[in-house]
Each structure stands twice: as structure tokens, then as C-alpha cells.
Amino acid sequence: MSELVLESSAWDDLANIPADPPRMRPLCGKCCRPIQVCWCSALPSQPLSPGGRIVLLQHPAEEKRSLRTAPMLSVGLAPGKCLIYKGKRFPRHDQELESILADKRSLLLYPSARSIPIEQIDPSEGPYNLILIDGTWPQAKAIYHSSTALHGMRQVKLVSSGTSSYIIRTQPTEGCLSTLETAIEALSVLERDDRYREQLLQPLHVLCQFQLANGAVTHQSKEFLIRHNQYPKLIGRRLNRLLKQAENFKDPDPTEPTESNAS
Question: What is the pLDDT of residues 126-155, one digit of tens each?
Fold first, then answer.
């Protein structure tokens, strides 16, 4: 009996020993990333201030991703020029967002049958609220279909976009862009100002360079891997459709949200 009492007492003593808290790496106060991997040194010396605004409708899962690109927008642009709303359905009884979505100067960057090239938008009728859905393609599609307020908006698309600089993430097809890159391209067109391409992409380059220097590898798109018999999984109907379009010399729409976003 005394042995049981001693054993119980020993366990009680052990249980009362405070655990050492995990040693956290110092975080940057601006981007909230560990200082060693902070990309703030590559930001514009002064935040850029476009006439319009970027409005991100962000799926909650995006916040958990460590390699997101949306924060580069929020700190690279002047205060109030990048608004982020989180959720799976919008506007979610938010009066400010309701007003933005109902504004005639709001444009939804989304691939649909009635989307028009953003180059056709008259900049003199702005400034515009440019709405982007931030998430993987299935998440973005679900947000769009469940958010009826988006369906009646003017919808635009990017006609040509080049190759993504987000080389440490796998994109579905050639020409798909991260959230940051999509917003930058659209801003450059609407504002008629190449500074957005020249300055706001620099943090992404720094992020990719750091990751590559520490073991990451350059990723090819799923389209590239499939064409070269290197993709290990079965492909879905959407990607198969895009590949068939490419075979028929029809460019897949580069404004569709990426499956690896690029956030």
C-alpha cells in the first residue's frame, strides 16, 4: 500500500512540473513571418496607392497556408487599398461588403461565359473595386456558386498572363497565376501603370529564392507533368478539359483560381 502511495505521489510531483513553452522564432511585425524568412525588404519603399481597391474574398483555409501571396498585397498596397473578407459565402450580412459588391464600379475577376477581357474596361470610368476569390479552384468555384451577390456583377478576365513566378508551387496548367500575380496584372491594366508588376512581385521572388536555397525545388505545372507522363495521380474532368483545349490551340483561361494558390 505504501508503494502505491509513493508512486501516486511521484506522479503528482511530475504532473505539477511546468512544461517549458516552445521557443518561438521572432516574427516580423509587418508580414507576421519569422524574421529569418521575412520578405519585407523587397516591398516598395512606400506602399503603392492605386486609384481603385483590391477586394479579396478569401476561403478560411487560405489563412492556414504558410506560403501565401495575399499578405504581400495587403502590405504592399497603401492602407485601405486591399480589403480581405474571410468566409465561404458572401456578403455574410456585412454592410460594407454589400455596398462594394453592389457598386457599379466593382469588377469580379472570374472566368465565365460572359467575362470580358479586362483591357476592354475604360479606366476613366473608375476607380474600380477589383474583386478576387482567394482559394483553390474547387474552393473558389464553391464560393462563387453559393454567393448569389456575385452572379450579377460585371465579370472580367485576363487574356494573356505569361508564366507564373510562383515556381515553388504546382499550378494546374501553364499560364495559371497566384492571387498576388493575378491582382498585379489586373491593377497594371486598370491603372495603366507598370510599377505594380515591377515592385509588387519582388517579395514573391525573394520568397521563392529563400525556399529554393533551403531545399525546395522548382515545380512544373500539372499540365506539364501529365504531358510527360510524370504526374502520379488521376486527373479530374476540368483539367482534362483544359488539356484538350490546349491541344486544339485554345488557351486555357489564365484567370481561373489556382489549385495551389498561390496564396
Answer: 899 999 999 888 899 999 999 999 999 999
- Longest distance between any two alpha carbons in the chain, whole Å: 89
pTM, rounded to two decimals: 0.72
